[in-house]
Write a structure and sequence with these properties.
Helices cover 23% and strands 39% of the residues. The chain has an eight-stranded mixed β-sheet, with no helix packed on it. It has three domains: 1-97, no CATH class; 99-236, Jelly Rolls; 240-310, Phage tail protein beta-alpha-beta fold. The protein has helices at residues 3-14, 20-34, 37-42, 45-54, 233-236, 249-260, 286-297; strands at 59-61, 67-73, 80-87, 100-104, 111-114, 120-123, 128-132, 140-146, 148-152, 161-164, 168-172, 176-181, 187-193, 196-202, 205-212, 216-220, 227-230, 241-248, 263-266, 275-281, 301-304, 307-310. It comes from Olivibacter domesticus (Pseudosphingobacterium domesticum).
Length: 311
Amino acid sequence: MDKRRLALLLKKYLNNKASDEEKNIIDDWIGQKQNEDNHKQKLDPIAIREKLKTKIDQKIIRNKYRRINLTLVVGFIFVTLFTLSIKYYYGGVNAYKQENYLINVPKGKKIRVKLIDGSVVWLNAESRFEYPKTFNKEKRAVNLLGGEAFFDIATDKTRPFIVETNASQTQVLGTTFNIKTGKSDKAVITLVNGAVRVSRKKADAMQGSIDLKPNEQLVLERNRLPLKKKVNTSQIIGWNRIYFDNQSLEEAIKVLIKAYGVQVVLKEESIRNIKFSASFSLADKPADVIYELAKANNIRYKWENEKVTLY
């Protein structure tokens, strides 16, 4: 595709004026860029796709002092995808800088974010999430500024994973859990598996800690005692599932590509209109989802790196 046509399609895409066919062209183009090593090093392909699809506000933040605005150029064309703002902050005698991504999820959207350590975070609609470009040697810290998120944390016994909210600090080594924040310094932490230790924030200080076991939920709220109880986690994290009700395989694949960040190709025309019903958790591994999908519909598949072909 020539530069002029691609620039025109991207402009229509960002302004919600692209046809379904044009949207598919842009999605395919973004997928191709995921396979280019130089782009993998410079850009977060999932963030780019979500920006183009939902116009989320993606910013690189560095706390305090001078601020620089710059635009990213994607691929070989000079098309601005979104603006990044950069700040610098300095600590002690040795100056250092921390780069963070800030994601604002629009109404009616859900976003999948893969962190540098392999951990995956699913953000519910109207959530705000801040995470670093790289983690330091001591810990892996992120900040859920509002909304709801489901975390599937990669195991690293040398560096605990820490989620900060206005009301709590949750520390894990490797597990899956859900956090929902409220407007008045409220946090609801639900553990699916593994183990977490939750500390309560009060006047910018941590007040003791509470350990959670699988299928337990902790509610923290200002001026109230912590409430820990047994819950049905499938009901709590229901927002984190994908449901297909008599949908065609072609329609389902579009959803799976966005949800799991993998490339899926339908090689045979005859399988595109296969109808099926199923549900998957966003925490499921892509390979397991494809396996169940292929098994249920009696089709074959082949993986090549991050790309799977169904036939």
